[in-house]
Structures are given as structure tokens and as C-alpha cells.
Amino acid sequence: MSSEEFRTNGRAVIDWIADYYERLETLPVRSQAAPGDVRAALPAHPPQTGEVFSAILRDVDYALLPGVTHWQHPSFFAYFPANASFPAILGDLLSSGLGAQGMLWATSPAATELETLTLDWLAELLDLPHRFMSTGQGGGVIQDTASSGVLVALVAALHRASGGTVGSTGLGSPRHIVYAGTAAHSMVEKAVRIAGLGTANLRLIDVDPTTQSMRVEHLRESVNADIGSGAVPTMVVATAGSTSTTAFDPVGEVGELCRESGIWLHVDSAYAGVAAVCPDLRWVNDGLEHADSYATNPHKWLLTNFDCDAFYVADRAGLVGALSVLPEFLRNTATESGAVIDYRDWQVPLGRRFRALKLWCVLRWYGAEGLRAHIRQGIELAQHFAALVATDGRFEVVAPHPLSLVCFRLRGDDEPNVELLEKLNASGKVYLTHTRVNGEYTLRMAVGSPATQTRHIEEAWRLIRELA
């Protein structure tokens, strides 16, 4: 493809994306495709000769689009949002166009230094503890997801708990233990499996049935019991805004316990953390001064295309010590000077994309006030939905809803709620998911798309009442 052909086809792709957003509301929110439909709509074998790009775009329309669930749809209320925005899309395009591989500072100084600056900007906007800034001993890095954040935090915690021996001698004994509330994300269990600890060394701590937050007294009992058995309490994962209900663990109390016992504290605030861009919502950071590591996802609720997890550590030396492997082919003068950051040492993969560009574009285009307006809109719409639910005695809101997620259900048995969710999602007009709260099947209404307006909330509520 020549540069002139690229210009022509590139304009066509940009037009296609702009048109897609303009017609998005006319499409069914959740894909109505059956298994195998997409594959059947495409040739079974690769082409022998090259095709024009217009043919590729035509297949995007007729073969792929029916198999897409539209996460940017104003009536997408499932999971947590995965915000996209035009500034972020353009930043991603610049990243793809540059094709930089930022594994080392030396392989692309701009990729490294812009990421360090952008993560410092974000820390300032969120009013994170100063210990997470790169100007001190800590710093931030963009991981793909919060799942990777938990994993690298665990590797760093194991490195510290073992006195730095895990990397050379393996785990061995004593046993290393990880703790998380029963409302914590499943990524914690995945991390202990990948790290070789096994789920037998994961302690799930009871949560309060009303707040769904971790019970610190149960955590203390578990830690003391493990110490008594000769095991090493290694990491606690505290959740600030759980996936099921937006529950907040008492991070301050948990942090004090961790400090007393020398346990690494990782705070997962993948969804809720970005709300701290609003000064009145900075209570989401309560207790964060105790954390050894912290993660929040701009790709969820801060207008930055997937993937973009902002992961911070209070002391980068422990993370680098755990993850740095320096073969001869990566040695270079800048690295050996100690004057630069090599982000390959902050993550599991060696290679890394220039992901900071899209977040940088978002922060510059919207500014603090634009980001705050977006967060506040989502919260206002969710609170409006909760107020609507309260007007119908058949329904109940079953958990606190401080941000933009509302958990609700039909009173009574689970089965009518299961049927209601199936009917709602089959309609193509909305998309919701479910969880269980205190064992009961519960529907989740997660607001967050920048396209969502009051009318979408009210239309969703009318449909819910009709189908209940």
C-alpha cells in the first residue's frame, strides 16, 4: 500500500468510524449472532491475490458488524463501561503509525518519558499519594489490565517477602499466603495460580453482608493463624469499588494491619479509582497512603480506549528487582547508566506498545473539567435510575450505589430475575449483566457510556417494568 493509497483508505476508515458512532443507537446493543455465524459469512480460505481495501470494509459491515456487541452504545449497561473517545482513537492511530516498541528507554525515549509524565499527570489529577509519583521512589506504568497489575504486584510482594530469593531459588518453603475479600475480582485467584502459589494458598476473607466490604477482624484472624502455622502472609488485595456491587474495603484499617505484619498491600480500584478526578469523590482514595501498589483503569470510565491500566508502586526498586532479567542483547549505555526507566522491568512481557499516547491525548483534549463532567454525568444517571427503581414496589435496590452502578432485583425468588435478564438482553434494546449479592441473583445496571442520556435510562426502566 503506497502512502497515497494509505491516505485514501485511511480517510475511508475514519469516515467509517465516524459514521458508526452516528448510527450506533440504531444497532442492537448485544450481538444477535449465533455461534459460527461470523465465520460462515467469511471465505473459508485466505485470498491468493490481494484485495482492495473497500472489499475489506464491506466485509466489516456485512460479516463482522452483526457479530459485534456494541460497548459504546448508549444503552450498554453490562459489566463496567469500556469508554472509547475520538481523542483516544486518534492517539491509538498515532501509536500504530509510529510502530514504536518501547521495551527499553533506548528503543524509544519518547515512549518511555511520555508514559512517565502522563502517569504523573494522572496521579496529580486523582490526588494520589505523592509516594506514587516518579519524582520519588515510586512511579506509574501502563499495564494492559488490572489483572496484570495484580500479578506483577504479587511477584514484587514475593520478592520482598523472600528477601529477594524467589527469583533465583523458586518458592520452596515456607508457604506464601495471599488474602482478598470474597467480593474481590477473580483475577486474584488467577494471579496466585500463575505465580505458582496455588489456590490452596489464597485466603478469601468474609465480607459484611450489608456493605459487601472485607471484615478486618476475619483478615486479622486468618493472618495470625497462618503465622502460627509457619506460613508467610505475603500480600493482601483490598478492593476499592468491587465488580459486583462497587463495595469498598476499609483500606485504611487493612493497611494498618499490613504495616504491622510487613504484608504487601495492593489496592485494586480498576473501575472506581478514576472517580477521584472529582475533588468531592476523593473519598475513593481513603487509606491509599498505606498501599504498596495501586491500579485503576482509564479504559473503563475515563474515555481511554482499551487497553490502559494505570499501575503504581510506592517503591519501584522492589518491582524492578523482581522482574528484571537483562540478557546481553538488551544491554545498552542508557540502561547501564541507571539514569532511565526501562518499562520492560515493570511488566510480564518484554515488548510494549506506545499506549501512553492515547491517555495523553485524552488528558489534553478533555482537561480536568471535561473528565469531571463525564464522571459526574454517569453518577447522576445511575442515581436517577436507582430513584426510578424505588418507585416500583416489585423491585429492590440491594446494595449501596455511591457511583454509577446500581444493583437491583425483583423481590422474591431468583427465577423471575433470571427470566427478566434473558428477556432484556434478547430484546437488543439494552444489555445488562448479573451478580449474586448475599446469594441472591441480582441484576447490574452499570452506567458510563459518554453517549448515555437521561432518555436512555428512562427507556431502559420502561422496558424493565414491561418485561418483569
Describe the structure.
The mean pLDDT is 95. The protein has helices at 3-23, 37-40, 53-64, 86-98, 109-126, 146-161, 166-169, 187-194, 216-228, 251-261, 298-301, 316-323, 333-337, 356-389, 414-426, 454-467; strands at 139-143, 176-181, 202-205, 232-239, 264-268, 293-296, 309-313, 395-397, 405-410, 433-437, 440-446. The N and C termini lie far apart (54 Å). Helix 4 (86-98) packs antiparallel against helix 14 and helix 6 packs across helix 8 (187-194). The longest helix is centred in the last third of the chain and has 34 residues, at 356-389. The chain is an alpha/beta fold. The protein has a domain at 100-353: Aspartate Aminotransferase, domain 2 (3-Layer(aba) Sandwich). A seven-stranded mixed β-sheet has the order 1-7-6-5-4-2-3, with helices on both faces. It has a four-stranded antiparallel β-sheet with strand order 8-9-11-10. It is globular and about 60 Å long. Strand 8 and strand 9 (405-410) form a beta hairpin.
Task: Evaluate the radius of gyration.
Answer: 23 Å
Largest pleated sheet? 7 strands, mixed
Mean pLDDT: 95
- What string, H for helix and E for strand, traces the elements in order? HHHHHEHHEHEHEHEEHEHHHEEHEEH
Q: Rough shape?
A: globular
- Tell me the β content: 5-15%
Low-confidence stretches: none
Number of helices: 16
- How far the N terminus sits from the C terminus, by CA atoms, comes to 54 Å
**Which CATH C-level class of the domain at 100-353 is it?**
Alpha Beta
Q: What is CATH's topology name of the domain at 100-353?
A: Aspartate Aminotransferase, domain 2
Considering DSSP H and I runs of 4 or more, what fraction of the residues is helical?
40-55%
Structural class: alpha/beta
Query: Order of strands side by side in the largest beta sheet?
Result: 1-7-6-5-4-2-3
The CATH H-level homologous superfamily of the domain at 100-353? Type I PLP-dependent aspartate aminotransferase-like (Major domain)
CATH architecture of the domain at 100-353: 3-Layer(aba) Sandwich
Please give the oligomerization state of what you see: single chain
Kindly state the number of beta strands.
Answer: 11
